[in-house]
């Protein structure tokens, strides 16, 4: 018996297109993101799936629902699959973060596992 796991990133959001940090912000899929999800659903239509899991944020949950629909399966939302919490950086572009938080951004680019974003949560939990 074998098991195959597909890891799929959500479709594009407006914030993705604007190069804004999203994190836990619950941004919706853009029209392009919806089409990306539909295109992948068409491509995966012939595969056999036992279950679908997604972050509980709408961009991921809606992407997964579009993928699961041809298979007649529900999507199990899991908070544990959420993207990292970017705190004060959420909704900001890299240029805005660089202007407001230059030291923290520099540290994050060099050592994200040990950098705490202002108002966010660190990646390392141990």
UniProtKB/TrEMBL annotation:
Keywords: Hydrolase
Active site (catalytic residues): 10 (tele-phosphohistidine intermediate), 83 (proton donor/acceptor)
InterPro entries reported in the protein's UniProt record: 6Pfruct_kin, His_Pase_superF_clade-1, His_PPase_superfam, PG/BPGM_mutase_AS, Phosphoglycerate_Mutase
Gene3D superfamilies: Phosphoglycerate mutase-like
Any GO CC annotation of this UniProt entry: cytosol
SUPFAM superfamilies: Phosphoglycerate mutase-like
GO biological process, one term: negative regulation of glycolytic process
Protein name in the entry: Histidine phosphatase superfamily (Branch 1)
